[in-house]
Amino acid sequence: MQRLEKIRRMGIQEEQLLSFMKQMALDAGKKAQEVKNDPSLYMVEQKETAFDLVTAADKEVEKLIVSRIQQMYPLHSILGEESGLDDRKSPFQWVIDPIDGTTSFVHNAPNYSISIALLFEEKPFAGVVYAPVFDELYYAVENMGAYCNGKKIHVTDHATLSESLVATGFACLRAGWKDNNLPYFNAIAPLVRDIRRYGSAAIDLCWVASGKLDAYWELNLQKYDYAAGELILREAGGSFTDLFGGSDTEKKGTLGSNSLLAKVLLPFFASYKAERK
Question: Catalytic: which of 78, 96, 102, 188?
């Protein structure tokens, strides 16, 4: 409670904050579709490779979110996937992925989302993930539980791989990693009920949180990919660690699960060596 009291003393009220974040995510979802439907605005560009895309919608959605935050919380720092870090030396930092799953967005596939998190002293305090095509709004505030469209959600409660539906991703392949996800995928896939690759880490983590999936792992995620989903998963009773069971998720991969499965899955990654700095 010391942490919460400290946050409140700095002007943050949970209900007001959550209402602000939820509306911002919903408006961001509408903005993404508006830009995509306007031929005069919508463009697709490559970042470093043909596999890493950015659209006009990514940029416009991030501008909308950043503008709202700056109006409401002008002293807070902001980290956006497209605009980088605006460091205001604040204990509060907003972490934004304007469209998580840009490739899905470009190809008219449904698995993309808007991810917004507020960190306090480098730990997530509030998070919202909105999947517009599914009209699923996931949200959580620290120690208040996790919800989707107003209904409380919770992870599954078993530790049996053969009964598990799991998901993963292959950002490491797009980054050209030699020690990539394929060996781990090949080892785990025959042992689980089935495996999925949806293309949005934020959605994957929320689906673990809501029991649609039992676990999700990745080797090469950035903080903006998982900051909101991490909190939502934890508040739904799940666990979120690096691939060695620790907390260095920016360098050593990520594993989100129903907690029970974490102990079963972590040994698969014992030989993993992170390539990123």
Answer: 102
